[in-house]
């Protein structure tokens, strides 16, 4: 039996709705703002809300990309996707809360940023920054409204869908209200809002042990956000050739990424002209002014090896599986990402 056919309407339909979307505009306060007209547009992936970009680990602020950006003098705007965080949670999770709807919302918010509809400020230069499914949306924006983005930064992304398909199985996605009854008991969420079944299934897909603090993993598990079945089914359909996008493109994907590299971002055919899986993203951008890839492979985790001589404490280690912002080397990755952002903004 075709499972999705039992629930999805067979023909495309026009959807006209008004949704309540929660977002946060952050402008640097204690440092010199590089340019008031510049903004980073942040879109999070599955399993998170927009706090992925302002990840809170007790006792430190170093896992917050928003804070790193602010310290460098850059403003950011992030929002909770439909069905996550403080944004609205529609009950029709098949025909309403799916990838095309998310892309329409992302487009509308981008228009508002450019037109002064958020914070009363018109942003003339915008760098789209995504993570995972958020990167899928940013990539789609660069194809459908290429004139509205000045640069594209895709974190946790590639054109490879093998791991994404495995994610549906290995994540063991289950009804959110059953997995986290205390969290969602008063939410009235339909059974089609899903989360990973257990800490082990979440860890397999998003985390690379032991290169993250336990406090970060616990924080994410406590705040994991639901995803609808329709988003899981339709997310990969958004990716398309961005033939008219002429700005720079930068891909940042951990060497051990599961959904987009299936654990090895260097597993390319022997006769390939590409050195890594993320490099194939360039095929989507034939007119890009510049294309670059960063595969984080090192971290300085002294605390992991307290019993070793300090001269041996800094080792070459794989960085992350998929939740890049919550691994030890996030601060180093942020500086690399912000280096790209600075080049786009000309600062």
Automatic annotation (TrEMBL):
Domain (AB hydrolase-1) ranges: 42-300
Pfam families assigned: Abhydrolase_6
Domain of life: Eukaryota
UniProt-recorded name of the protein: AB hydrolase-1 domain-containing protein
Originating organism: Gloeophyllum trabeum (strain ATCC 11539 / FP-39264 / Madison 617) (Brown rot fungus)
Lineage of source species: Eukaryota, Fungi, Dikarya, Basidiomycota, Agaricomycotina
